[in-house]
Amino acid sequence: MSETGNRLRKLLESPNFDPQNYVKQLSQQSDGDRDLQEHRQKIQNLADETAQNLKKNVYKNYRQFIETAKEISYLESEMYQLSHILTEQKSIMESITQALLSTDKDETSKEMQAAFPKETEEVKQRTLTSLLEKVEGVKNIMDTPGRHLVYNGDLVEFDVDNMSPIQKVHAFLMNDCLLIATWLPNRRGAVKYKYNALYDLESFAVVNVKDNPPMKDMFKILMFPDSRIFQAENSKVKKEWLEILDETKKNKVTKDRHKKEEEVPTSPVRAEVSTNPFDVDDDEPADAEENVDLSLEWIQELPEDLDVCIAQRDFEGAVDLLDKLNEYLKDQPVTQKVKELRSKVDERVRQLTEVLVFELSPDRSLRGGPKATRRAVSQLIRLGQSTKACELFLKNRAAAVQTAIRQLRIEGATLLYIHKLCNIFFTSLLETAKEFEMDFAGNTGCYSAFVVWSKSAMRMFVDAFSKQVFDSKESLSTAAECVKVAKEHCQQLTEIGLDLTFTLQSLLVKDIRAALQSYKDIIIEATKHRNSEEMWRRMNLMTPEALVKLKDEMRSCGMGSFEQYTGDDCWVNLSYTIVAFTKQMMSFLEEGLKLYFPELHMVLLESLREIILVAVQHVDYSLRCEQDPEKKAFIMQNASFLHDTVLPVVERRFEEGVGKPAKQLQDLRKSTRPVRINPESTTSVV
């Protein structure tokens, strides 16, 4: 490196180097841009050289870096081992200290109890009595002999879901139960609290809640399937509650165990010798009781294991343990010990059943579809509760379907809404049926309940359907399309052997009948209004396009011979009233056939008959009253169109749609035979 470079390096490395002063002096001393460029190049060269030297040093000391990292790793593992050893030693020392303290404590308590046995018990009961005098609604608490106060204090209860404070309570811990009392806002004399709940020590578990500021100093009490959260005044009080609760529960368990062990018969019972040769030997149960081995470790720990499984929501594991016990005791005689074990297990079965029932309740989340209920349903069936499982499963699915229908947004277009409604309902019904068939495959007795539930669900669907289609006074064509969509979706259920078409029709028959009669009245009123303004003139459609359009419309209505009533120009040899009536009646017939099912046969038939009679009677009246021969001939031509063209098409189309001929329509056509005109008279003869 040159001498200039060394000088520059020393200057930059000096501890008193000031960049601003250096740049200021450099700008004053330089003669122009060239000097600044040269100085910049020198600094850049120095930087490149420094970077190069740094790389060389890294490569040179690379092995040392690796070795140092290994040494650090070794040191870290040794520190972990040392920490583990210290922790073990600490725990050992604490256990030894605790054992010594408990021994001294037991000896002291025994001495105190021996010295003052009655006084201590009486003082505890007197203290509890004085405290309970401040609580409203606890008159029978002291009826249990030997009950005394262990600990008490103020707590704040929080909501389990949103962790918001609910109320201030006072807790009384006794040797066999826990009393929760709420503060009275308006105190009455010495009474400060009101009774809220009383829990047996064996019916709940205490769980420490981790501090999460501002939520701290809390603990939870679990009573399956419910729970409550309380907050202590500070961490010290919380620790005392947890320790005393745990110690009191242990003392109660120990006391109950000693009590059972000390229970012995007061006097031996001498067996009576029977001379009856048909009596059963009474020695067999005693021998059998000795043969039932309940000392196995898994049997002894079974009640506690069931509690753990229920708390951890391991329903399958709990039922597996119950099945294992039932299999073990299947061929064993029923002894006193077996009955005691059964009583303990039955209590856990009741708790497990309550949890599973809560899992299937409609108050729980309904997301996930029918498959989300499979776990709880299968375990209830394994517990022999198939009827209850079936009932809860169907209630859950009914609530889910009802919620889905309620959340469906009502669209402006009725047909679009009905498409969405049918898709949601029938898809849910199909999924529920498949899940039901899978879950209750071995319980054929539950299928009748599913059929009843399906009908009730269909009734709920029809209520929503009718409210949107019929109550909103939609047109008959829209109602017919909506009913057609519902029928098509209902047919999908036949793939699983469930046919609810008849149920759907029976629920819709009232609304469809009302819609047909309402639309019939509209057509009759419109026909009468046109009849009142009838001039009996030929139609002039003005343009060939309009004539072609009318021909297409009449052809779509089934009037194939309509062209014989049209001329070369844009004239039609029929009146506007007859043409409009024909189109409206044929439209009513087509929509009525879409809505048709056997219960509506007479309704549709009578509606058609009434509509046709209005037109026929008007033509007959016009023929009798008209005096102009030309107009009479024109009216005659319209009457012939009705009798020879329109009525046969109506009969044929009705027979095609229904599957059998309409005798009433045939009789109507025969009674309205073509009209003859007497040329020498102004009267018409029918």
UniProtKB/TrEMBL annotation:
Domain of life: Eukaryota
Region (Disordered) location: 252-286, 665-686
Record's compositionally biased regions (Basic and acidic residues): 252-263
Domain PH: 148-250
Biological process terms in GO annotation: exocytosis; Golgi to plasma membrane transport; protein transport
Keyword Cytoplasm: yes
GO cellular component: exocyst; growth cone; perinuclear region of cytoplasm
Transmembrane segments: none
Pfam families given in the database record: Exo84_C (PF16528), PH_EXO84 (PF25345), VPS51_Exo84_N (PF08700)
Keywords: Cell projection, Cytoplasm, Exocytosis, Protein transport, Transport
InterPro entries the record matches: Cullin_repeat-like_dom_sf (IPR016159), Exo84 (IPR033961), Exo84_C (IPR032403), Exo84_C_1 (IPR042561), Exo84_C_2 (IPR042560), PH-like_dom_sf (IPR011993), PH_domain (IPR001849)
Localization per record: Cell projection, Growth cone; Cytoplasm, Perinuclear region
PANTHER family from the UniProt entry: EXOCYST COMPLEX COMPONENT 8
Family, as annotated: Belongs to the EXO84 family.
Role this protein plays: Component of the exocyst complex involved in the docking of exocytic vesicles with fusion sites on the plasma membrane.
Protein name as catalogued: Exocyst complex component 8
Classification lineage: Eukaryota, Metazoa, Chordata, Craniata, Vertebrata
Gene: EXOC8
